[in-house]
Amino acid sequence: MVSHNPHQCLLGLGGYRYYIGKSFAQRSVAIGFDPDGMALICLPEGSEETIRLPSQGLTKAELMGEMAALQALPNYQLALPFSLEAWRQLEYAHNLTGTTL
Q1: pTM of the full predicted structure?
Q2: 99 phi and psi angles, rounded to 5 deg
Q3: Of 27, 66, 77, the residue nearest 47 (C-alpha)
């Protein structure tokens, strides 16, 4: 959630608040994530200046979501026919290196 009021721009994510700045109040903000630096990357509308905000309370397991459990398996085989859940896991598995399907 990005909160805009006439005086400031705040971002709320996972119960944490991030202050973007007074000069960006009343503007849209594109938000990305830098996994190497563990930071949110904010690009306010009409600006070429990016703002890096150190992430708060994020662990590797939280960022990986369901994929963490799949990565811990030595081998992973999907059952046929594919269910929606199996298809989603297959999409995750494509990102794992050294995975045999």
Answers
A1: 0.53
A2: -90, 135
A3: 27
Residue 20: burial class (beta carbons within 10 Å; 0-12, 13-18, 19+): buried
Sign of torsion over alpha carbons 60, 65, 67, 69: positive
Q: Reduced to 3 states, what is the DSSP secondary structure of residue 88? A: helix
Same domain? For 40 and 67 the reply is no
Residue 25 lies in a domain: yes
As a whole number, mean pLDDT of residues 77-96 equals 74
Element (H, E) at 61: helix 60-64
- Domain residue limits at 72: 60-93
Q: Which residues contact 1 (CB under 8 A, 6 or more apart)?
A: 11, 12, 13
Higher pLDDT, 38 or 1: 38
Report pLDDT digits (tens) over 20-72: 877 777 778 888 888 788 888 888 888 888 889 888 887 766 766 777 676 77
